[in-house]
């Protein structure tokens, strides 16, 4: 393809460096992704050169980079950097953690809330870090069940907790906008580890706390 953007003049540093096409002087973020988006626009019958779409490949490349930024992040590093010794034995629960992810079957968004609980074993983690761990796994191509399990397993592995519970309720735009078009359905998934898996009372206590 002759219209593949050429890169020159690096002006910024992010995950990809932004540069400018020497001929048009337009911003280029990730040339190969932008060409793919441009081809996609043509394939669906659009004109990628019309005013409203001219910068769409650039914007989509940036958005995709952000929405899949979780691949480059480590839950272990986030947790280990914020662990504190604390003699707490009672359940810690962070409710209603908002998240946005993309289903790996359609690359369409699914979004909702995660509720996370754990039973400390001499260590607690900064509460904001639990929300960040959710984002580490949400900002990837996902299925909801795997997202739920990965959050639970990462916390269980790096927190040294007696148990971890994760419940996620989400709406899937691939169900809402296409296919069965069920706009109001939510999908709930759960992952129980350690005490939450073994002890019904612990699990019930968690479930009663996350009820709204
Ligand atoms: Zn889907």
Name a few traits of the molecule.
alpha+beta; elongated; binds zinc ion
Structural features, described:
37% of the residues lie in helices and 25% in strands. The chain has 212 residues and is α+β, with helices and mostly antiparallel strands. It has a five-stranded mixed sheet, sandwiched between helices. Strand 1 and strand 2 form a beta hairpin. Helix 1 packs across helix 2 (56-67). The longest helix is centred in the last third of the chain and has 16 residues, at 144-159. The chain is elongated, with a radius of gyration of 21 Å. Mean pLDDT is 90; it is low at 1-14. Zinc ion (ZN) binds at residues 103, 105-106, 108, 172, 174.
Overall radius of gyration = 21 Å
The number of helical segments is 8
Helix proportion: 25-40%
**End-to-end CA span:** 55 Å
Mean pLDDT comes to 90
Low-confidence stretches: 1-14
Question: How much of the residues is beta strand, in percent?
Answer: 25-35%
Identify the bound ligands: zinc ion
Let me know the largest β-sheet: 5 strands, mixed
* Element string (H = helix, E = strand): EEHHHEEEEHEHEHEHH
The quaternary structure here is: single chain
């Amino acid at each position: 393809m002759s219209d593949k953007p050429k890169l020159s003049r690096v002006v910024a540093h992010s995950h990809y460096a932004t540069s400018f096409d020497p001929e048009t002087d337009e911003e280029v973020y990730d040339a190969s992704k932008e060409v793919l988006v441009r081809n996609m626009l043509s394939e669906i019958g659009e004109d990628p050169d019309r005013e409203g779409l001219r910068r769409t490949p650039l914007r989509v490349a940036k958005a995709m980079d952000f929405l899949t930024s979780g691949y480059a992040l480590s839950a272990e590093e986030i947790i280990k950097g914020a662990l504190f010794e604390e003699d707490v034995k009672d359940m810690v629960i962070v409710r209603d953690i908002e998240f946005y992810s993309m289903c790996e079957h359609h690359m369409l968004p699914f979004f909702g809330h995660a509720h996370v609980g754990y039973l400390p074993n001499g260590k607690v983690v900064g509460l904001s870090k639990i929300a960040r761990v959710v984002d580490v796994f949400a900002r990837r191509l996902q299925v909801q069940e795997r997202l739920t399990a990965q959050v639970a397993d990462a916390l269980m592995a790096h927190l040294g907790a007696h148990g971890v519970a994760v419940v996620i309720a989400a709406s899937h735009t691939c169900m809402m906008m296409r296919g069965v078009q069920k706009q109001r359905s939510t999908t709930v998934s759960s992952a129980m580890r350690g005490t939450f898996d073994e002890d019904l009372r612990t699990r019930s206590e968690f479930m009663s706390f996350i009820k709204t």
